[in-house]
Amino acid sequence: MDPRDLAFTGAAEQARLLTAGVVTAPALLDVYLDRIARFDRELRSYRVVLTDSARREAAAAQDRIEAGERLPLLGVPIAIKDDTDVAGELTTYGSSAHGPALAHDAEVVRRLREAGAVILGKTSVPELMIWPFTETLTFGATRNPWHTDFAPGGSSGGSAAAMAAGLAALALGSDGMGSIRIPSTWGGLFGIKPQRDRVSFAPHEGAWCGLSVYGPIARTVEDAALFLDVTAALPAAAGGFVAAAKRAPGRLRIALSTRVPPPLTARVGRAQRDAVAEAGVLLRELGHAVIERDPDYPPRAVLTQALPRYFRGVHDDAKALPRRERLDPRTRAFARIGGLVSDRRVASMRAAEGDIAARVNTIFDDVDVVITPGTATGPSRIGAYQRRGAISTLALVAARVPFQAIFNVTGQPAAVVPWGLDRHGIPTSIQLVGRPFDEATLLSLGAQIESARPWAERHPPMS
């Protein structure tokens, strides 16, 4: 099999090829190590590539395959975001303020290893995962393989850049304010923020005051479903998530909405609006009942819930670091603001969360899925915010990505499905939002869209 084709084959299909003996685990790993050596000097999607340990893991996986062992991800190389602990490695959070190497895997990494995955490396993040662009004083700028003058998004920017360029089979992301969905959009990838607590965040439970979750950045819907099947701490859908992705969704009631959740303001670009309109046409052709309707967004929920929890979460992360003086001045300013959010206010916000979620979810009395633009615009250019402070940077980036944070507050699942390309040749997406705990419908509908409008064969110029 051609190495480039193999690199862009999804994780689930790679697992089947490994089991069938079409490729060996060491040979598959070598495909990715070779591509990383060729492309990642410019992209900087990885903070560190774990070449030696990955070779040992691949060799051990091959021995297990030849012994007849069958595991869902046995021998498949997976990238881990650098906010997640890997035993024996640093977790830098995109900063030189980090502590020593960690002794134990995070629970999500433990489950991936248990499923047979080979840990390929740790991917780049913005400092303390704050921004939807991935540039740091310590590690430099990560670039978008679709157009290297632009950011890949963030904070899972390295994971998305690696996936888009064919430098990993599957990647772990985390999402506290859109950090899976934003870079998946601008990477032309399927990314899903699962239901809060679906995937364990241990040993960092409650991160960003409950906003943050782990989830997959994947080439196909099946790959994302497989990730959820092997990592889910809460019980999965009946038969599992892969089974859900393979089921026809039936006739769904779908609402299209391009309204920006208040009090945010943003100009939604033509390519992003067109994606939602074109999705409506396709979904009607597929037999779904499609209407235009906006969720009942509480007018100040982003301001009174998402932003204070975001600021306080960054404050807590900064406070836990041993060398805080090494943080970027913009990060320190962000953390200082978060220190003004008291424990009492956090408790009050968490207590009010149920009422907010109930109000947003009244739309699901009448529909099964809500579709919004994935982002309002494309990504920023590399270096666009270098000389800006915390608040001015936040104001500018929020106008690009207004559709994510409200669903971190409510905790329900949301996924992005690749759509077209903007005028710079960078992908766009639509966001699918489901009822609480209903990843299954999003996977089923996402797979139906993928079948009708395939995206996995589209590769960026830098690949």
From TrEMBL:
Pfam families found in the cross-reference section: Amidase
EC numbers: 3.5.1.4
Gene3D superfamilies referenced in this protein's UniProt entry, alphabetically: Amidase signature (AS) domain
Reactions the enzyme catalyzes: a monocarboxylic acid amide + H2O = a monocarboxylate + NH4(+)
Keywords tagged on the record: Hydrolase
InterPro entries hit by this protein: Amidase (IPR000120), Amidase_dom (IPR023631), AS_sf (IPR036928)
Hydrolase as UniProt keyword: yes
Transmembrane segments: none
Record-annotated Amidase domain positions: 28-443
SUPFAM superfamilies, sorted: Amidase signature (AS) enzymes
Uppermost EC category: hydrolase
GO molecular function, one term: amidase activity
Family named by the database record: Belongs to the amidase family.
Name recorded for this polypeptide: amidase
Source organism per UniProt: Mycolicibacterium hodleri
